[in-house]
Amino acid sequence: MFNQLINKISEYKSAVLGFSGGVDSSLMAYALKSANMPYICATVQTPLQSKSEIVQSAFFCSEYGIKHEIICLDVLKIKEVKTNSKDRCYYCKKNIFGALFKLAKDLGYETVMDGSNADDLKEYRPGLKAKDELGVISPLAELGLGKKEIRSISKDLGLKTWNMPSSPCLATRIPYGTALNIDVLSAVEKAEELLASKGMGNVRVRVHGDIARIEAQDKDKAYSILSPEVLNSVKDCGFKYVCLDMDGYKRGCFD
Length: 255
Fold this sequence. Notes:
By secondary structure, this protein is α/β, with parallel strands linked by helices.
């Protein structure tokens, strides 16, 4: 299947890859390198991405000798993003992919690719509309590869990213209609990093006003970790109240 991916990619002469450093885009980056074609990985840094994601993307590219560009984009200047509208993702992705196409044009690359996979097509993803409108190429999705297959291929290739947890943008922790700002996004980022450092694993901190609702994949382990000291540390991130959702982690719960 990896050879099929290389063949699909090789239909193009050169590409800019929208690169987050996650499982999907890391496999794409490795495939582009293996295809021996001109390309560059470009990570768009916005207030909606955690700093650790930027560090991870840079580390991966450095480790594999891949040319890497970081583009800074303040998407909070976009009304639909700042107000956290239901179609926020469409406007955000349109600006992000627009920046990637500009980079491709400036550097003389033929097209823009991303790591969208077949599973993404089954979920509420307004950003896919922007991708399609602009003509972004998604080889993984075109080959029908979902997350399970992508992890398996990555593991076989020895990529350290194969078992990384998904890391959607920080705005997904905040209900639609609740305005986004640096303070609330920073509070979420700090709280999740704190909980992960305590061994909680795949965790989301959902925001409801001054309440932090913690969703953990292993809710029993999370319950044992949430000592009074840890709870107070989460509060110090910028919350008045903290609670653990006993239903556990729910992907895209606000959708």
